[in-house]
Design a protein that fits this description.
This is Reverse transcriptase domain-containing protein. Helix 3 (114-133) runs parallel beside helix 5 and helix 4 (139-161) runs antiparallel to helix 5 (165-179). The strands form 2 sheets. Strands 1-2 form a two-stranded antiparallel ribbon. Strands 3-4 form a two-stranded parallel sheet. By secondary structure, the protein is mostly helical. The protein folds into 3 domains: 1-108, no CATH class; 114-212, no CATH class; 226-282, no CATH class. It has helices at 38-52, 69-78, 114-133, 139-161, 165-179, 190-193, 207-222, 231-243, 246-255, 278-282; strands at 21-24, 27-30, 62-63, 93-94. Strand 1 (21-24) and strand 2 form a beta hairpin. The radius of gyration is 23 Å and the shape is elongated.
């Protein structure tokens, strides 16, 4: 109903259909254009609920304003998408700048630092490792636990939002303290422990190494042909092009391959990075 409605949503170059909604299990995210009508959305949802015998939980409904700072402020103060439109019900929370909103385990928002989203995760890793430390596991056992706990608790958020360098260091420090029970003197170099067993190590978890593998997976998805690319790749095209200088953008238009499905593509520049700068650029630093 949403995709066939008069709601505009977002038209993204390279995509055949407008971006209007994404659904996962019982979690639904709707994307409204500044010219759309919240009242029309409510009418559509009411019809769907009537037909399906379901209902949306207004108390759990949250709005994340997109666009300029002026537009976001206006939306928050008026509680309207546009003048003359329906006012958002009182039970709906509108995220202000600096406030993150949880969506499927991620924390998007305006002017929200990703470091804040990681604080709870790192604390949980430290607390769990501390509990296991009291059981006095062997060095090999600690290596396995570090992979399961430090790696497992952080994999999803790292895959969806990336992990800042300072968080990487905090996570590796938590593993280091767990391995050596907080002692400052280490009889075996950590780089040695991070090697695979056949190379004399324990395969100890290393945040930077795991994250680099994830970023390369992102790159692989980004460089796929248009019909295989995930939705986020087409959005990334527009963001990257917007960050380019005028000269770089002109060069991209002339040299970009056509298989990505976008008229302008920054993909040309991935192949031009020198090897020693790849990790920094993959991380957007």
């Amino acid at each position: 109903m949403l995709r066939k409605s008069a709601l505009r949503g977002y038209s993204i170059e390279g995509l055949r259909e407008k971006l209007i909604a994404t659904l996962y299990a019982d979690d639904t995210t709707v994307y409204l254009n500044a010219d759309d009508s919240f009242e029309l959305l409510q009418t559509i949802l009411d019809k769907w609920c009537l037909a399906a015998g379901a209902r949306f939980n207004t108390k759990k409904t949250e709005i994340i304003p997109l666009g300029t700072a002026e537009f976001r402020t206006s939306l928050i103060e008026s509680r309207q998408l546009k003048q003359g439109d329906a006012i958002f019900p009182d039970g709906i929370r509108i995220a202000r700048d600096g406030e993150a909103t949880r969506i499927l385990g991620t924390w998007p928002g305006n002017n929200v630092g990703t470091v804040n989203a990681w604080t709870v995760v790192i604390d949980r890793v430290r607390n769990t490792l501390s509990k296991w430390s009291r059981k006095n596991p062997t060095l090999a056992g600690k290596s396995i636990l570090a992979r399961v706990i430090a790696g497992g608790h952080t994999q999803f958020l790292a895959a969806t939002q990336g992990m800042p360098l300072q968080v990487e260091k905090r996570l590796d420090k938590a593993v280091l303290d767990f391995i050596w029970d907080g002692r400052k003197s280490h009889p075996i170099n950590m780089d040695v422990l991070r090697r695979q067993r056949e190379d004399g190590g324990l395969g100890l978890f290393h945040a930077a190494g795991r994250n680099d593998a994830q970023y390369l997976t992102w790159l692989g998805s980004y460089l796929k042909p248009a019909h295989e690319r995930p939705l986020w790749c087409f959005i990334a095209d527009r963001i990257l092009l917007g960050a380019m200088t005028r000269t770089a953008r002109t060069t991209a238009r002339r040299a970009a391959p056509s298989h990505t499905g976008a008229r302008d593509s920054p993909e040309t520049y991935w192949a031009r990075w020198p090897p020693n700068g790849t990790r920094r650029r993959l991380r957007g630093q």
